[in-house]
Queue: 2 jobs
Job 1
Amino acid sequence: MSSIIPLSAPCINGNEWRYIKECLDTEWVSTAGKYVNLFEQMIAKYTGSNYAVACVNGTSALQISLQLAGVKSDDEVIVPTLTFIAPVNAIIYNNASPIFMDADKYFNLDADKTIQFILNETVFINGSTYNKITQKRISAIIPVHVWGNACDLDLLVNVCNERNISIVEDASESLGTFYTQGKYCGKHTGTIGAFGCISFNGNKIITCGGGGVILTDDRKMANKARYLTTQAKDDPVKYIHNEVGYNFRLTNIQAALGVAQLEQLPKYLEKKRENHKQYVFYFKTIDGLSIAKTPEYSNNNYWLNILQIDNDKNEIDSLMCVLEKNGIQTRPIWHLNHLQKPFEQFQSYQIDNARLLVDRSLCIPSSISLTINDIKKITSYLL
């Protein structure tokens, strides 16, 4: 395995062992303990959110956030087709239906098409937005900040607020990404909507070995999120439960790992930024291949670098084969969700660019441990 250049491996070189050993020595290993609270406090402070609620993974954070955002059974939720499947599953878990939207040039939800859909294909009646075709209420939207790229939300937020469509941001991949232009300048992704969700899976910029977090500025909603994610205990001594809850709380051991990782986030971000610059530099010399650009209106975390095929000279499968033979791990971007078998029956709207992106994009190694020599090796096989 040492000779393989992985796609996105975790970096464990801080206080991880010491903090986890403390959990084991003190026997605080489950969902209670000082590191859970500390991790939440550190995430809230870093992102600028008033509250952070740690969950077992990013998918559970999305599921609870949609529930708290008011998504009811038989509602509809707008979501991009180009995303990891988690937000779509979270919609289904709430007994709602997805409406799939196209992607913009940064792989994110196409804000212009989404606004067009809301203004032209829905009606606003008695404080709610309804789909003209299905007659169902559209109660929420999930903008996903793909690869760490901040979604363009300036105009979309205004339209959603006017139409009473709750915004739940999927910031799973964008820890460390801040807006630098527009009305949200200085804000972290995941802090603009009613809720934001971040993932700490093993391939993310920092990891808890799993884990996720709900961001919100609403104290009442934060308390309700903690209540629901700890089995909705109204009396933990007599085991009284007045609502259906979930076993979705992060463990102290996972949080300890997360605290140690978060301590190193600034240097991780700097390394990611430098590796992206090196990729851009070396791929300039290769005809027909380039590194996908990031939004000019934000400071990106460069979580994952995407190789784009600019002409018909190369094909994804052949590129993957060449790199795999030489110990370099890659993967195509996700199969579009509106084409996935469980979701084929749901509505999609003018999806064009997302198809092109899938056909011409490849995820390439982006670990924090990636070196310039690794980048030179990767590019040398594609000359």
Job 2
Amino acid sequence: MSPIALPGEPLVDGPTALRAWRESDLRALVRICRDPDIVRWTSVPAGYGEADARTYLLRRHDAIRAGTAAPFAIVGLPGEELIGSISLVRIAWEHRRAEVGYFLSSEARGAGHATRAVRLICGWAFRSLAIERIDLFAATENRASQRVAERSGFKREAVLRSFMRGKGVQLDMVAFGLLATG
């Protein structure tokens, strides 16, 4: 695996942009990750603190160098306020496949930022990384994330029973796929 080269300039769609993470994002990341909905639907631990954020910000460098993930900060324009996180993860180069995962601050939800962010990262992955398929998994009860997948062009493919462990319970997940060819 070779390192991933993140774009030098932000990826932009209207009021939504994806950019590389900055150390100055730490406090906003802690605030955002204390949202109970983020804790409920993601691997973000309850009681998220500065140590968790520092660990995340440090690990992103390793993942980029290893070619296993492409993490971006989601920011709102024009002021570049941190509003969320989006990453390509579980990149399987031999299969030209990756998974996308994301979360948004409660204040940013409902304004189309998640849909634009998913479209931006997927378009970039298809063009710049030669990825041919992107997976997205959403808990069967997480209708908001399923709507983001559908608005972003993903096709619902299956319900995977007891697929992921989340907060001490097995979760059924809806599997979505997006192909570079449409």
